[in-house]
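Notebook entry, structure prediction.
Reason for the run: the old model in the group folder had no record of what sequence produced it. Starting over properly, with the input documented here first.
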Amino acid sequence: MKIKCFEDIEAWKEARDLTKMIYSSIAHIKDYGFKDQIQRAAISAMSNIAEGFDRGSNKEFIQFLIIARGSVSEVKSLCYAALDLGYLQKDILNNIFDKCGKLTNLLNGFIRYLKSSSRKG
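New structure, fully documented this time:
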């Protein structure tokens, strides 16, 4: 399938799901600084995939995908803190980690693909 817009990108769809998962899993948290940080990290993954898509070259797109991958790692790290602080239960944490793993794998595969393709120069 040809990717015509960022909404066609599987990694973006997964990042969108991760964002929804994070927001719903932490809705009860009153630690607003923590809540803001983990929400921003999830949204950053989604947004960097979208922004990178509209850049002028694969090199730039890859850089944005790498940033998105870093944001996914930030979500995971913050989830450990959420578990330790009693903000998340282990089963919810495991579901989030599964989503993060799938997203990271998609990003890694997409980066490999872009390194070998000639999309947009």
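Summary: The domain at 14-116 is CATH 1.20.1440.60 (de novo design (two linked rop proteins)).
The old model has been moved to the deprecated folder.
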